[in-house]
Amino acid sequence: MLTVAPLVVLSLGLLQQASADPTESLPGVYDLTPENFDKHITGAKDAIVEFYAPWCGHCKSLTPEYKKLGEAVSSDARLKSRVVIAKVNADEHKSLGTRFGVGGFPTLKYFSRGKPVNEPIDYSGGRTKDAFLEYINNKLTEDNGFARVEILDTLARQFTSASDTSDLIKKAQELAGSLTDEAKINGDVYLKSMQKAASKGMDWFSTEKARLERLLESGNVNTNKISEIGRKLSVLTAFDKEE
């Protein structure tokens, strides 16, 4: 009778635990196809996308860590509001692999907010949940000023040290009114922030920033409000005295 050494059995068990089917649905991870790719990867948020093949051993090994990443991002209101985690079966959807220059599996691409969707950068960092999160958080830190408007940043710096803010508020109102599209939305946040601080005192900036951060950390925020909070937090950095 054939017997299998306990060490071999253990090794086989660990191997099975360390890999999984990359085609399975993962919590917090979008499965992208040519039909829905541009719906989810729009440039409005950062995104990391894995291009895989079902038969690829390295893709199978990556799946448990990618699952952990999806769970971590979907359970963090701040991250969920700013980053998309997704994967593509590029063996089945070859057009997407061709579109993004995928030459091997798994290939991971990082799509930065505000950049053309067809110009992602290659992710070459570690392939553990913690390595992914460190990379993502570094990218988001670099992009904390996503809602900043340069012409209003100058006023913001003057505002925090001004003894009379009425002229600055009037100027901000004029500038915000001259903006269009996304910049107009952001400009209105500058103006409302100045008006609030003028009535409540300059400490309002720090207390409001802390309040919004607590809201996000609580996880008890309506999904529709998360992006609005992120926008406000971004604009509030323009009023940091350290800047």
Architecture overview:
The protein has 243 residues and is α/β, with parallel strands linked by helices. It has 2 domains: 20-142, Glutaredoxin (3-Layer(aba) Sandwich); 150-239, Endoplasmic reticulum protein erp29 (Up-down Bundle). Helices cover 54% and strands 10% of the residues. It is built from 11 helices and 5 strands, in the order αβαβααβαββαααααα. A 5-stranded mixed sheet has the order 1-3-2-4-5.
CATH class of the largest domain: Alpha Beta
CA gyration radius, whole angstroms: 23 Å
Do you know the CATH topology of the largest domain?
Glutaredoxin
The count of helical stretches stands at 11
Number of domains: 2
Q: Strand order, biggest sheet?
A: 1-3-2-4-5
In short:
This protein is an alpha/beta fold. 54% of the residues lie in helices and 10% in strands.
